[in-house]
Amino acid sequence: MKLLFEKDVPGSNAFRFPMDDLPPATENIPHDQLRSTPVDLPELSEVEAVRHFVELSHRAFGVDDGTYALGSCTMKYSPKVNQWAAQLPGFADIHPNCVQPGADHLMCELQEMLADLTGMDAFTLQPAAGAHGELTGMMIIHAYLRDQGQNDRKVVLIPDSAHGTNPASAVMAGFTVRVVKSGPDGLVDLDDLAAKCGPDVAGLMLTNPNTLGLFEKNILEISRLVHDCGGLLYYDGANLNAIVGVARPGDMGFDVVHVNLHKTFSTPHGGGGPGAGPVGVKEFLRPYLPYPTIRRGEDGQIVFDADEEKSIGKVKSFFGNFGVCLKAYAYIKSVGYEGLKNAAQLAVLNANYLRCRLSEYFDIPFNTLCKHEFVASNLRQAPSGVRTLDIAKRLIDFKYHPPTIYFPMIVHEAMMFEPTETESKSRLDALAEAMKQIAREAETTPELVQGAPHNTVIGRPDETKAARNPVLSYKKPAQ
Amino acid sequence: MKYTPHSQGEIEAMLQTIGLESLDQLFDDIPREILDQCRLPDRPGMTEPRLRAHLRELAGENLSADDAPCFLGGGCSDAFIPAAVGELLAREEFYTAYTPYQPELSQGILQSIFEYQTYICRLTGLDIANASLYDGGSALASACAIAAEGTKKKTILLPETVHPDYAQIVKTYASSGIMNVQTVPAKNGATDPDALTAALSDQVAAVVIPQPNYFGCLEPAAEMIAAVRQNSAALVIMQVDPVSLALLKSPGEYGADIAVGDAQPLGSPMSYGGPHVGFMAVTQKLMRKIPGRLIGETTDADGNRAFVLTLQAREQHIRREKANSNICSNEALNALAASIYLTVVGPVGFRQAAERSHRLALYAREQFELRGMPLLYNRPFFREFVVGSDTPEEWIEATIDLWHKRYTGEDEALNAKKITFPDTTGGIPVEGGVLLAFTEKRTPEEIDQLVDVMDDAREAIQ
Ligand SMILES: Cc1ncc(COP(=O)(O)O)c(C=O)c1O
């Protein structure tokens, strides 16, 4: 397909702003501050522009197209009423330097609901994504420890199963990382954790359920070990969908949490973003939240506070991704707390059902009760030379978005399935059948799997070439 | 309402397959004492009609740019969005997809980001642009961080004229110790080149140049960059308004190393300040330092053009604690909005948006000055400026009051949500005056009204 820069037809774009109501131009900007040549933009007529992007959309795959069991990403259905709400002028076209009582009320109530659901005392909506929330949370821990005169606590403990953003965020907040091993059961190895706890430890970052989809059932012991050595507990809320309404990180001993509104709370992923990563803390950390914080005063009035003395400052302009927060608000209001619990139950039901169905044909390294996701591998297909990558690509031919692959890193050739609660039994049965067929093909016609996908607009792209000779923008060919 | 598709019979059949008797048993691995503590207050769900009525009510309490002309800027722009932009962004294939990890299934998303990267390169005049960052402020902080990392130096020179939120975000990111922020004082609304020269040393990692700056003024960028090049090996980071680049010299033409900004004015609604979209572009030399996703062009085995996520060895999912940034989810849909916007308005429309804004601002200055309300700073500007006042808060409040009396007094509904302070019609209070913005949506008539009201309001508070 051509790039839009290759569809340039000079003179074809007829879009204009009105200019006839303007007084004649006067001089203001010195000549040497002006652009020497106009920005080189392509000209497309409106119809050609529209067709270009529609054609692009035909080469993409969203949750509304079919099952999207991309592990760790919670690709659940996004209710359409959320989209409707975001387009209301009273939400879309409001400026953040103007007091907006309806929006302020919404943010306040969302914070209160997130506090209920996570068992935390105070929230900020500022972070724009999960990783941004992690950074914010780790900065809060950093600022708190400094206030306590504990500047020597420089080490953050992170399990080897953790998402890459965890260690990256800890480092950006000024810490170093000490990796904690997972035991043979896929859970944090308590002996290793105990050995790594010490006076230099600032805290532990943990995802629970973890990235294998297993609940860290020793969480109270883990929390005791870390707190006893003087560290704090950070909860990566990427997997909250498994337990929302059922169990709360605040009751497990976590001091700081982030939640991914674009996962648990149904806001669409936008092809990679925007998301939102609100951060919640226990009372003793409230003063460190980014400012302004928003709360309901005694008389019910909304109050903005800026405790600039202790606060870590700001991590984002204005109040965060309000347009995303509002969709999460609409979702929670729509299903209610019971509905969230129901979603968690069915997300876990779906994952376990699919795990049981797939375990007939695929290796499942930790084949026990899982939460919202589980990890399989290619172990049984490996003898015929079929890799996890091949299985994932073959699944595309059956019109599925593949699972997350090669993560978590502690499982060789991992395939991480997270069906979410919005897939029906018949959808899961069909996915299981497709996987069964791929398992059969791996035995009988492995080349078919290795050469997949076969029904897509391109075959497997040459990634080595892309990295070795990076072409990162379009350049007109020399005439 | 619920969005789960299971029938009771299906749930029972599925439980049987797993070998469990109840949904509760699915949580048997969670310690009892944790489960018992999760007692939530009663919060029933809502039907869609009720929910919509409730949301409409909340939205109705806000003052939108539909209700009154918006003269607020300061990092969030009441920009015109062509109808085609919203229509195309509403396609589910775009907005319900996730990061294009599977290129064969995601060529549309990958190509759209590649096109966005190309647009950002062309606007900024630099070589490499990433797939987006959270917003302008965090993009600036990330630029400072990669400069510190890349130069192995710590000092970031940050002019006093940078957007206060942006400055605070940079300071917050600096609290980890990776960089030190040193403020460069301003003189008459822009950075004082002598003060900059005095602050330069071989410890400086980067110098930030906001163009235009928070007060709307154009910085003496050429002079500043010359000073940087003469007195240090620091990188130059220009923070720019993308619309201004239709008229103003680009960061590339100035010889900057990094350009950042917020592409919200290109197709994203204000949305109370987010989601917006941070952009970053760098020189070829810094290609491996740029944070976030990059889309590259390659081919498949048959030689078909193909797009993929590339140079991922910079990123957290590969490098973990050694990654150059922690970013994972970004603002892809807003980046797509920018791409669609630029395509729909085209080269003439884009230039007109900038020119119209600029000429409206010139007109506004003239009207203010004719009425004896001079600008605080006598400097070239693009489309925002500060009208001088010792009591900006009071002035704004009186302006809003008068505005509503005069123009919305008859409108009961609008009056009911009349907001005390601040308000869209009033401008943003800054030291020494009121910051006003003029986007291409404004008209000379609206400006006449504003000037009238501000003039009368000024008298009212004297
Ligand atoms: C376990 C886990 N942690 C953190 C993140 C980062 O979240 P975000 O992409 O919102 O920054 C992810 C995202 O996929 C994740 O799966």
CA distance, first residue to last residue of chain A: 21 Å
Q: Please tally the β strands of chain A and state the result.
A: 12
Mean pLDDT of chain A: 97
The general outline of chain A is globular
User: What gross morphology of chain B would you assign?
Assistant: globular
* Series of secondary-structure elements of chain A, N-terminal to C-terminal: HHHHEHEHEHEHEEEEEHEHEEHHH
Biggest interface, CB < 8 A: A-B, 194 and 212 residues
Number of domains of chain A: 2
Quaternary organisation of the protein chains: heterodimer
* Order of strands in the sheet with most strands of chain A: 1-7-6-5-4-2-3
Q: From the helix content, strand content and strand pairing of chain A, which structural class follows?
A: alpha/beta
Q: Report Rg of chain A.
A: 25 Å
How many domains of chain B, as an integer? 2
CATH class of the largest domain in chain B: Alpha Beta
In percent terms, what proportion of residues of chain B is strand? 5-15%
CATH topology of the largest domain in chain B, by name, is Aspartate Aminotransferase, domain 2
CATH architecture classification name of the largest domain in chain B: 3-Layer(aba) Sandwich
Mean pLDDT of chain B: 95
Uncertain spans of chain B, ≥5 residues at pLDDT below 50?
A: 418-422
Query: What composes the largest sheet of chain B?
Result: 7 strands, mixed
Structural commentary:
The complex is a heterodimer of chains A (479) and B (462). Chain A has 479 residues and is an alpha/beta fold. Chain A has 2 domains: 80-334, Type I PLP-dependent aspartate aminotransferase-like (Major domain) (Aspartate Aminotransferase, domain 2), CATH 3.40.640; 337-454, Aspartate Aminotransferase, domain 1, CATH 3.90.1150.10. Chain A has helices spanning 46-58, 80-86, 89-92, 101-118, 130-147, 165-172, 190-196, 219-228, 322-358, 388-397, 425-444, 446-450, 463-468; strands spanning 122-124, 155-159, 176-180, 201-207, 232-237, 256-259, 279-281, 293-296, 302-305, 374-377, 404-405, 414-417. In chain A, α5 (130-147) packs across α6 (165-172). Chain A starts with 45 loop residues before the first helix and ends in an 11-residue tail after the last helix. The mean pLDDT of chain A is 97. Chain B folds into 2 domains: 83-340, 3-Layer(aba) Sandwich (Aspartate Aminotransferase, domain 2); 346-461, Aspartate Aminotransferase, domain 1 (Alpha-Beta Complex), CATH 3.90.1150. Chain B contains 16 helices and 14 strands. Chain B has helices at residues 8-18, 32-37, 48-60, 83-89, 92-95, 107-124, 136-151, 164-174, 193-199, 221-231, 251-254, 316-319, 332-370, 392-408, 412-416, 444-460, and strands at 128-129, 155-159, 180-184, 186-187, 190-191, 204-211, 235-240, 258-262, 278-282, 295-299, 305-309, 384-388, 428-430, 433-437. In chain B, the strands form 4 sheets. Chain B has a 7-stranded mixed beta sheet with strand order 1-9-8-7-6-2-3, with helices on both faces. In chain B, strands 12-14-13 form a 3-stranded antiparallel beta sheet, with helices on one face. Chain B has a two-stranded antiparallel ribbon with strand order 4-5. Chain B is globular and about 80 Å long. Pyridoxal-5'-phosphate is lined by residues 72-73, 129-131, 163, 165, 207, 211, 236, 238, 260, 275, 277 of chain A.
